[in-house]
Amino acid sequence: MLHVIRISNGGATLCSRYVKTYKFKVEKETGSPVLPNVFSGFNGLTASAARGALSAVKMLTGMFDPSNGIGLANMSLAFFGNNLYALGESDLPYAVKITADGDVVTLGRRDFDGKLFMSMTAHPKVDYETGETFAFRYGPVPPFLTFFRFDSEGRKEADVPVFSMTAPSFLHDFAITRKYAVFTEIQLGMNPMEMIFGSGSLVEANSSKIPRLGVIPRYAKDESEMRWFEVPGFNIVHAINAWDEDRDDTVVMVAPNILSVEHTLERMNLIHTSVEKVRIDLKTGFVSRHPVASRNLDFAVINPKYVGKKNRYVYAAIGDPMPKISGVVKLDVSMSESDRCDCMVATRIFGPGCYGGEPFFVAKEPNNPEAEEDDGYVVTYVHNENTGESRFLVMDAKSPNLDTVAAVKLPRLVPYGFHGLFVTETDIKKL
Questions:
Q1: Where does 38-187 have alpha helices with state H?
Q2: How would you class 123 by CB atoms within 10 Å of its CB: exposed for 0-12, middle for 13-18, buried for 19 or more?
Q3: Long-range contacts for 102-108 (Cβ within 8 Å, ≥24 apart)?
Q4: How far apart (Å, rounded) are the C-alpha atoms in residues 9 and 364?
Q5: Fewest C-beta atoms under 10 Å: which of 54, 156, 249, 372?
Q6: Where are the strands (E) in 178-226, listed by range?
Q7: Exposed, middle or buried by CB within 10 Å (0-12, 13-18, 19+), for 411?
Q8: Which residues sit in the known binding site for Fe cation?
Q9: 3-state class (DSSP) for residue 335
Q10: 335-388 pLDDT, tens per residue?
């Protein structure tokens, strides 16, 4: 379900609508699930056989055709090629539209003229300067990683399969720089046989595996220039940003590192993520890591104009514990690494019993090249569990305490969700 708040002329309209995916339509008609959720597992061989047989019967009888899509479109949103997409990494993007009165309409599943196969990441990266969008897909069969991009008009370019990733890894996010794309191979892997015959989970932690970072030119035609760098103990699900430094011989990446990866899927309340800055010297192959903040932070965002460029400010959600978010911090990642200091420069706690969603940065003047990086607002949904009230908060990104400048009382609950997006009125009119 998408929760859309449209702010215009001093007023606000809230609309909540399900994305009309193929899976949603079939399950609404039948009144029951047609496919199990792979992340909740099959619970061993007997349950696997029963649920698998039930799904097979529904496919054989024509009740459900998996070629029409199996995903939920419930993870994130992206705007590129003058289209707004709802994304889930197990399926193709679904185009959606915001109407003049604030309603949300599903336009349909998009395969980009047959050039996009099966699925796409829910975290594509849009280069503000070129208008290009970079993305990937991953899966349990070779090639386990496939990299691709869309031009500024939203036309998909050729796939770049990466066969040097030799085992299926849980690859949720990545980063781009002006010259490269940076992928992660972490200790969370995908094991279909374990799902069926073992614990029942498709994704499993492997403590003996050494995490790696893969760097490939972002305009690569093939994987011949892909380089992998071992980074022991570096397990990330989300990337914040990356950029080139030192005459392009160094790639810098900022991301929250999961300190206890074995808890990621089953005991989220024990997860602690520490934001780190990683430097990869492409000449020597040396990799260095520096902590940026010790607090439990994730769901971090930047000014979208700085994607792939050296940025200074990061706005991250405080896990208390995850997935409950008790506030937002502002980080200054330009602070000296030699000082070993905590880079938090502003904090806003929502209050007792109040929890929010992922923050998002909205620039005051997105098209002003002279505007300062943090000249804008941090926005998020917040729910008060004591009173049952939900609000949409607008905070001053430059203020030392992320001061609230506006709050919209909502008529109903906006549940704690995953990722969001801010789209300007100008872009809405392009849909």
A1: 44-60
A2: buried
A3: 102/4, 102/6, 102/13, 102/14, 102/15, 103/15, 103/17, 104/2, 104/4, 104/15, 104/17, 105/17, 106/17, 106/19, 106/20, 106/21
A4: 16
A5: 249
A6: 180-185, 188-190, 203-205, 212-217
A7: exposed
A8: 123, 172, 238, 419
A9: coil
A10: 866 566 789 999 999 999 999 999 999 999 998 999 999 999 999 999 999 999
* DSSP-assigned letters across all residues of 371-394: S-TT-EEEEEEEEETTT--EEEEE
Q: Kindly report the pTM of this predicted structure.
A: 0.92
Q: What is the distance between the alpha carbons of residues 2 and 84, in angstroms, rounded to a whole number?
A: 12
**Rounded distance, CA 144 to CA 166, Å?**
7
- Number of alpha helices (DSSP H) and beta strands (DSSP E) in the chain: 4, 29
d(CA 164, CA 162): 6
CB atoms under 10 Å from CB of 200, counted, come to 18
Closest Cα to residue 193, out of 144, 140, 146, 143?
140
Would you give the DSSP letter of residue 156? Answer: B
What the block records as the tokens of 119 is: 């699925």
Instruction: With CA atoms as reference, report the closest residue to 422 among 88, 76, 125.
Output: 76
Contacts of 29 (CB under 8 A, 6+ apart): none
Query: Tokens standing for 174?
Result: 């990545």
Question: How far, in Å, CA of 89 to CA of 141, rounded?
Answer: 15
Q: Which residue has the higher pLDDT, 412 or 337?
A: 412
pLDDT digits (tens, 9 = 90+) for 299-311: 999 999 999 999 9
Q: Would you call 275 exposed, middle or buried from its count of C-beta atoms within 10 A (0-12, 13-18, 19+)? A: buried
| Bridge partner list, 253 | 242, 278
Of 309, 332, 308, 327, nearest in space to 317 by CA: 327
145 vs 38: CA distance, rounded Å: 19
Residues pairing with 355 in the sheet:
383
